[in-house]
């Protein structure tokens, strides 16, 4: 059972609900001094997850996968079903975020929730979250590079290639790293702008798709099924189509990771998670329906280099399609920036507890910006490594997406599973699920297991060097390294989240 002196909580009873403590007092009670500036309010915290989920980026970047694997039936009804499952995960995570509002987020809570072997649970949760977050940044910026090339091809005589995609991705990663290094206050402002960019952009896209085309598909088109994956099993193809929604709904742990920079984090962080998922589910469904009913030539569009771009061109013409592409590219760039910001905070916290090579370097904080600048560049370099196979692989994007989803959702599932094992011993925060905590957690864990199996399976046939889903290999490499390192030295030196002392001691260490 977590030590109440470390969590800063008292046992919840019917007559004495938990009360949110002062932010610094809560952090000090968990054994950490304040090193980061609390510049995020409720809307800012929500904005980070809403921007990372980013329905415009997620739907447009993976829409072709859904068209091939199941078509409109899976795209629309799969969106509804998976959104509900993800909401269960978000609610279960929110309850944990309220109890442990730290930048360490998932790996910290795993260490605190484990009855035994807390160091090992925390270690593996942290490494899964790290590789998942790195892959999220990589996949988003890779998708942005793809759409940037589509725009350039509309404007000039330009032929997109795999190598050009990797080079543009590297340039985007560089820009995002520079922004996180030198303009930290601007990043917070950009995250607020991104929410309105998404909302206004969604309205522009949906209104255009509804009002401009001369005709749309018939009402029953939502039930149309299509399978162009090459796999003969309709069920298997349909399951692959669910990956569109699963990929879109990643990164909402961003609100959790920003806890140490959020005002009233014990309440605002969990609310940020749940609100980001809920609003994304509703607005995403509207966008999905608008796109599906704007399809004209299914065979030609699904076989094009960028199916959603071809749908826009066929439905809206080149002029308006260019304007909408700007909206899509902007959304992807906002998403990639927010991804890197969240990833950096995870690296900072994990290194703070001595769990990464060169930990002292990665958790150092810039005296000027009060942010972990060196961790920013580690995040950028790691993301670039993951997209390098795109130099020759046609399935690089789907593989990086798989690494993103499997890594993140496993790291989501571990603390939820450990919380279930604690039952009534769990020390709840001010935001909790009450009697619904256990059923919500069970559903969340079951869906995480199911979706992760799907992402590890082959996604294209025939399986060749250029179509092979290298996600299992990438994840295996990370887990093997983490395991070898764990048994070689880490199990002796890393015992889970580190406490820097009692509340009064760490309060004296505050740097801001």
From TrEMBL:
The chain crosses the membrane at residues 46-68, 74-100, 165-183, 195-214, 234-252, 273-295, 315-338, 375-392, 398-418, 439-458, 470-488. GO terms for molecular function: transmembrane transporter activity. Its main location: membrane. It comes from the Bacteria. InterPro entries: AA/rel_permease1, Amino_acid_permease_CS. Pfam families: AA_permease_2 (PF13520). One of its GO terms (cellular component) is membrane. It is a multi-pass membrane protein. Keywords: Membrane, Transmembrane, Transmembrane helix, Transport. This is Putative amino acid permease. It comes from Actinacidiphila reveromycinica.
């Amino acid at each position: 059972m977590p030590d109440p002196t470390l969590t800063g909580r008292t046992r919840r009873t019917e007559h004495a609900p938990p009360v949110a403590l002062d932010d610094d007092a809560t952090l000090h009670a968990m054994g950490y001094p304040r090193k980061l500036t609390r510049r995020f309010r409720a809307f800012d915290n929500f904005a980070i997850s809403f921007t990372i989920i980013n329905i415009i980026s997620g739907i447009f970047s993976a829409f072709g996968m859904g068209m091939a694997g199941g078509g409109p039936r899976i795209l629309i009804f799969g969106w509804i079903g998976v959104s509900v499952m993800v909401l269960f995960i978000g609610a279960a995570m929110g309850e944990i975020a309220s109890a442990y509002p730290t930048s360490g987020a998932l790996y910290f809570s795993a260490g605190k929730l484990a009855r035994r072997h807390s160091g090992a649970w925390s270690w593996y949760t942290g490494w899964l979250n790290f590789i998942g977050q790195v892959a999220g940044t990589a996949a988003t910026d890779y998708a942005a590079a793809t759409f940037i090339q589509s725009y350039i091809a509309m404007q000039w005589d330009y032929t997109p290639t795999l190598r050009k995609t990797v080079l543009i991705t590297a340039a985007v990663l560089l820009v995002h790293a520079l922004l996180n290094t030198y303009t930290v206050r601007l990043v917070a402002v950009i995250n607020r702008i991104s929410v309105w960019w998404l909302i206004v952009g969604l309205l522009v896209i949906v209104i255009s798709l509804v009002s401009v085309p001369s005709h749309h598909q018939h009402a029953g088109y939502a039930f149309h099924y299509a399978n162009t994956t090459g796999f003969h099993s309709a069920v298997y193809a349909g399951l692959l189509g669910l990956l569109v929604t699963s990929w879109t709904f990643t990164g909402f742990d961003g609100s959790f990771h920003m806890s140490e920079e959020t005002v009233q984090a014990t309440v605002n962080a969990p609310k940020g998670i749940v609100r980001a998922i809920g609003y994304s589910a509703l607005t995403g469904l509207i966008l999905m329906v608008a796109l599906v009913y704007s399809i004209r030539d299914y065979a030609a569009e699904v076989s094009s280099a960028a199916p959603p771009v071809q749908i826009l061109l066929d439905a809206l013409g080149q002029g308006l399609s260019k304007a909408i592409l700007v909206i899509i590219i902007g959304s992807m760039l906002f998403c990639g920036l927010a991804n890197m910001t969240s990833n950096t905070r995870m690296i900072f916290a994990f290194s703070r507890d001595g769990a990464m090579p060169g930990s002292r370097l990665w958790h150092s904080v810039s005296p000027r910006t009060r942010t972990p600048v060196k961790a920013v560049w580690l995040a950028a370099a790691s993301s670039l490594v993951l997209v390098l196979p795109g130099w020759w692989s046609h399935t690089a994007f789907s593989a990086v997406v798989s690494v993103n989803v499997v890594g993140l959702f496993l790291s989501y599932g571990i603390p939820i599973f450990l919380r279930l094992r604690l039952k009534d011993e769990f020390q709840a925060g001010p935001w909790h699920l009450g009697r619904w905590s256990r059923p919500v957690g069970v559903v969340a864990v079951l869906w995480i297991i199911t979706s992760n199996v799907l992402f590890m399976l082959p996604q294209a046939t025939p399986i060749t060097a250029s179509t092979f889903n290298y996600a299992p290999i990438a994840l295996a490499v990370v887990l093997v390294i983490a395991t070898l390192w764990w048994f070689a030295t880490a199990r002796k030196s890393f015992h889970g989240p580190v406490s820097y002392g009692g509340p009064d001691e760490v309060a004296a260490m505050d740097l801001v």
